[in-house]
Specification:
Two copies of one chain form a homodimer.
Chain A (H helix, E strand, L loop, with lengths): L10 H7 L1 H5 L16 H11 L5 E5 L12 E2 L9 E2 L3 E4 L12 E9 L13 E5 L11 E4 L4 E3 L2 E4 L9 E2 L10 E3 L7 H9 L4 E5 L3 E7 L3 E2 L10 E2 L2 H11 L3 E8 L3 H14 L2 E5 L9 H9 L1 E4 L4 E2 L5 E5 L2 E6 L3 H20 L8 E6 L10 E9 L2 E4 L15 E5 L11 E6 L1
Parallel strand pairs in A: 5-6, 13-16, 13-17, 14-15, 17-21, 19-23, 22-24
Antiparallel strand pairs in A: 1-12, 2-11, 3-10, 4-6, 4-7, 5-9, 8-9, 18-20, 20-21, 22-26, 23-24, 23-25, 25-26
Chain lengths: 430, 430
């Protein structure tokens, strides 16, 4: 019995959804106006439609946890490959026991089978084999009687009731039938999947390579985290945040350093990263203060799809492309950066890994406070969850501690009535 | 504003909960009878009360994602350390603007401040500084007027309404006050916490060492995964399953190989592992077929707390201890092994890492099928989740594909009425 493939989005089906997008390049148009923004859903669509899947590599199965299969897996043989007993008891021929409806039937115990490698025993009518859980059924046997239910005297077992076929056994192809599909390409492997792969003899698997993500931080006030900032300066934290986030999402982060608002230097670094990485994340340069340097540089080297996402409280996110390399410019505040990582960049990483079906955890809890809607933008409000209640966390987005103070976010759709105290809301857990 | 410590179980508070247990050693008594079992909650309690926390080590903060802090972290300085503007605009002295209630007030713009290292500007009454988001406020300034709201002619800004103090600024200690608690010991670090630590200059942190888990597989029918099994043999998969599970939970798995039901060899291996590891997991030897070899060996080398957990469908789990090393014997079927890993072993790993507050994801969904309760044992039924509905997955526990076919489990308490189609149930996500 295989995994029901239809229950999951396979790589192919996901790709289908984007045929439309890919054939209409104008849909992902350059947004010129400084104030023009796209809704979050559109930003995700753009990112998903531009992102290229990474190449493939073959790795040992015990290093494949969390990786995405780039091949479909089929059972190479019947598994377990022989009929097995699922209990301790006696292997019998069920048709021998039909007459037990009228009077007890006696069978002769002709031998004993432990599990593990065994001779090809054969059972003739009127005979039984004592057998251990996991043991290989003798040829001819089609059911096993539970040891506890058996009346045995010497080498004779007395059967009081007819036994139907297929009781307390696993058939040779009941786990997997030779050639049947086991996992579709695009499946993200979990520890339990590693076990399944090993059970069918797949000790190597073909998976998507981890995407390499170039990380650049910009900001005139930034100093390296190892420095002691002078008054007016702050430690650069975004590259650490993006690095840890990328690692956790199965990507390989590569730091390109800090640029202090120098467009030429940024151009040089982005150009270099676009030749060495699968995608580039620039943080800081998309805030208004940096005069949209990131967007300017991307525009010079490639194209810009949007310079903003219309959700509160963080709008400034640039999405562009240089050759085949996607470039995302994040806002400079770490707490805003984290929001965009969780809402947008995660889709980039999933699309590159070919993992469209990756789950986001959601929880339904009651609100402890009122949340008003904005007329024009979807609002995303951080919340902490305690005792299955969500409490909104408000604060200036420039404060770093906002980062550690929330468990997830609640979306308040633009133009809705908002939420009242006690309303049940959906929280997307970080 | 720090993390509200009281909202989280700190290491200390968790330890407190176990003072009672530790002072009553008889509570974790040896269970002699072959049929005597303990409820799951009791098994978890035993594991949590025996498990020792691992030692500590100091690591670079950028390698600390997922690790548990073994020190409490306090802010070494005020953060950001200087008063900052949160918008582009004009830094002013708010008391200068009180009279704007009656008539417009003019202030003279005496300079301009960009963010980054800056001179110690000073603002005298009647003056204003143009300032950039993130810029350091001049001494004396206590509010910032938004650029968009300002009426400027030459070097004169005209104020139409009084401006209260503390508008559009972050005070020097508003993110963190020197000495205030930032994270309690026992906190599990996430990417956003790495960013917070870097922001306060913590580029090294003291964390719990990863627990080293010895893994032994037993079973007469087992052959190494690299082999092609002969008829009657099956590939050993549990060590792969336990290895991947331990890695994902932040432990270091060490394989000790396969024992084909040889008590002496198992004794030797367990003895060796108990000297080299923080805990030992033996799979297979706790099924009835292996005649409780694992329990016998543990009993000989140390003590056995229980030989079974009273939940269906997997009862056979041995919990014992050799010196200070906890030994857990798991059932042999991979799908049963996985269930016990998720319900019991996870508590062992969390307790060793000093991470009591680690979250388990739960989801509330409606059932598509009836689930009957058992009179004596809690039942744990695997379910798949599609379109927010949970469908029970039934199957013989000897089948490996059960592993990959479910998203979580539902508990049906012993002696309850069970659940009907359409009932809302809590699913613990794997």
């Amino acid at each position: 019995m295989p995994i029901p493939w239809t229950m999951y989005q396979t790589e192919t089906r996901w790709a289908d959804q984007f045929v439309l997008v890919k054939s209409e390049p104008n849909q992902a148009k350059r947004v010129n106006s400084d104030t023009e923004t796209v809704p979050l859903e559109e930003a995700v669509r753009i990112v998903r439609s531009i992102a290229h899947k990474t190449g493939t590599e073959t790795i040992p199965v015990d290093e494949a946890d969390g990786r995405t299969l780039s091949e479909s897996i089929f059972a190479p043989d019947d598994i377990p490959g022989f009929d097995r007993a699922t209990v301790n008891g006696y292997a019998i021929i069920s048709s021998d026991t039909i007459d037990a409806q009228i009077r007890p039937i006696n069978l002769t115990i002709v031998g004993s089978i432990t599990k593990g490698l065994s001779k090809n025993h054969e059972l003739s009518p009127g005979q039984a084999f004592s057998i251990q859980t996991g043991g290989k059924l003798p040829a001819g046997a089609d059911s096993v009687i539970l040891e506890e239910d058996s009346i045995v005297q010497g080498d004779v077992i007395s059967i009081q009731h007819p036994v139907p076929p297929d009781v307390h056994i696993i058939r040779r192809d009941e786990d997997f039938k030779k050639g049947e599909p086991v996992y579709p390409a695009g499946w993200i492997l979990r520890p339990q999947d590693i076990a399944v792969l090993v059970s069918i003899g797949r000790i190597r698997v073909k998976v998507r390579k981890k995407p390499i993500i170039g990380i650049i931080s910009t900001g005139r006030e930034l100093v390296p985290s190892e420095s002691i900032p002078k008054s007016g300066e702050v430690r650069e934290v975004n590259s650490y945040l993006v690095t840890a986030f990328c690692k956790r999402q199965g990507a390989i982060p590569v730091r390109y350093g800090i640029i202090r608002d120098d467009a030429e230097e940024l151009t040089r670094l982005i150009e270099q990263a676009s030749q060495e990485c699968d995608a580039i994340i620039v943080s800081g340069g998309s805030s208004r203060d940096e005069h949209d340097i990131t967007a300017q540089v991307i525009h010079k080297l490639g194209k810009v799809y949007t310079e903003g996402i219309s959700f509160a409280p963080e709008k400034r996110t640039t999405i562009g492309q240089i050759d085949s390399v996607l470039v995302i410019g994040l806002p400079g505040h770490p707490s805003a950066t984290f929001m965009v990582l969780t809402l947008v960049v995660i889709h980039l990483l999933q699309a590159m890994k070919g993992s469209p079906n990756q789950q986001v955890y959601r929880k339904y809890v009651r609100l402890t406070d009122t949340l008003h809607a904005s007329k024009d933008s979807d609002r995303y409000i951080r919340v902490t969850i305690t005792d299955d209640k969500a409490t909104p966390v408000f604060g200036k987005s420039g404060l770093i501690h906002m980062l550690s103070q929330s468990d997830g976010i609640v979306k308040i759709p633009a133009g809705s009535k908002g939420y009242n105290v006690g309303d049940r809301v959906e929280v997307m857990i970080w």
